[in-house]
Amino acid sequence: MEENKKEQKVETSNKENAKVENVKVKDSNKKVEEDKKFKKVENPTKIEKSQKDKTTKTKKENKNTNIKNSYIVGIILVILVIIAIVVGVSMLQKTPQKTINEMLTALKSGDIETASQYFNYENLMNISGLTNKDNMDIETQKLFFDRLEWNIKNVNIENDTANVEIEVTNKDFQTIIGNYMQKALRAVFSGNDLSNSQMESYLKEELQSETAPTTTVTKTIALTKQDGEWKVNESDDLTDLILPGLRETINSLNSIDVE
Length: 259
What we know:
Layout: H1 2-92, H2 96-109, H3 112-115, H4 121-125, H5 138-142, E1 149-158, E2 161-171, H6 173-189, H7 196-208, E3 214-226, E4 229-232, H8 236-242, H9 246-258
Antiparallel strand pairs: 1-2, 2-3, 3-4
Helix pairs in contact: 6-7, 6-9
């Protein structure tokens, strides 16, 4: 009997110990599960926070980049505005070179009114009765310059005075006037009474001739600034430059008449 009781006690003790062990295991498993849950909850929070930090940092970097880009664009715009102003002012200002170009362009295109703004056109054409503008119609006058070509080689400016070296190609008026005079003389020797209109007709034929030769002359022309505008000074060099050979030929004819 006593042995049975002892065995029962031992069995009961073992069962109690087993229960305790089971409780411990369950508690341990429960703690593990709780730790897992905690970690599951903790990790997304950390990831979300990290993502927010990255997003904030990216936004700051983008903002700084935009500020820098805006600053650079602003500087470029200011530079462009300054360049536009400088170019605009320079285009509005008349220079000796621009004055010469506009004058010769006006002459070549037959715009005598515009050309007269830069120099005394009447004095240029009044070399003698032969080229007196009052003795020629406007169409004949235009023929003196319709084949005009030029190249500005050098410009020297000192205060209100400028010297411009120009290479000009135009009709050879020494040859043209020589041919014109031969026609006129043949008509006179033939007993024809030449009128001014007939004389001009002969001159016009020579000026219009496609075989009329050209010549190139290089001269230095002086200009003076008056009221902010450059004016071309009258001179024999100006005449010899744009009407090469004409003045010399007219002077030779006049000397023959005097003799």
